[in-house]
Hints:
two-stranded antiparallel ribbon
Amino acid sequence: MDNLRLLYALTALNSYFYNPRRTEDFTHPLWAEIMAHLCRASPSLLPTPQFRLYVSPRDFDLPTDANFSFSTQSDSEAKGVITDFCVLIPNLTHAEGGTPNVLDVENVRQHIKDLNEGDIPFPKFLVKNMFVGALVELKCPLSRHFPNVKAYARRKGIVLHAAKIQVTAQAQCLFSSSKYASQKYVMLIAAVGEWWTMKVAKREDFDVFVLGAYDNLVSNANEVERDDDDEIRILDENDWDNDFHDPKTVHSISEETLALVKADALEDIRREAKKARQEEEMKRLKPATPAVDNDPKEELKEFLTTASSQFCTEETINELYRLQSKCSGKYPFYHREVGTIPTGKVTKNSLTTWCNPMRIGSTASNTHFDFIQKELKAAVFNHRY
């Protein structure tokens, strides 16, 4: 990974002047560079933004012969999603004559050299089959104005969860399409600004070729997408775990409701700031009393007062979780230890569930990117996925 390119992209993403609203589009240069890096192993790995995945009853009537020709036609019955990014892996064969089998990349390169033509000879080849190596769902970067680290960590968990729902719907769409009927798994990436997580989704985990099951998941994903104005939902801490982890309870909200939610959130921030000023004034006027040694609540309170919430490192968030667990005897509901690497090698079997969130540029992040790159390269070599 070119760290210099990542530095430029991350700095642009976090620019106060050029990205004051912290919008999702500023994450695209960052992930365009990442996707290009992941696909450098082979010219047949195509990093693709805004790719449309869809399912239609007509899919099952399409010819399987790559040489069959039919006219372009509209399809009002198709239902689908548009990915933020994905990796396409087309396998080529001869359009006329020659072996009907999939050609290795080096075979294609040699054929182009033998043809000795000035233009790219794409009419000489057809796509024998194609796989989708990875699906990526991006969300807006987190706000710079959280009252403390706890609010930052909680919001990160909420928005990452929404991204997971959407990219899972995209996998459902992929596995429900007859075009990708032979594909066995796909790598899923959910990202919020510079934070991201991944898993390997296997075909057997989905109700494939069932339009009804696909409709249910996609409708929930679309509802989350409509709420993605950096304010998906602000919930009471005790309700979030039950409500937000169930995709069926994610509903779109009106502009009026959204305005009220934002107003309430702003009022909460003001109230917390006023309370903090009052407490500080009381400390100044009241003689200091010795703090109880190793009091977890006092330790957490001191941490929330001093830790920055504008740019939280992995160490800061993990320290928050550690202190909260000392207070309650258990980790908070939104806890996922960040920046950690699984014991042993990263494998498909170790990623059957979402891995812990990582910050781009960290050791854990680089390790998982290396895994993705190797998996994509293996898919090209084996002509299957």
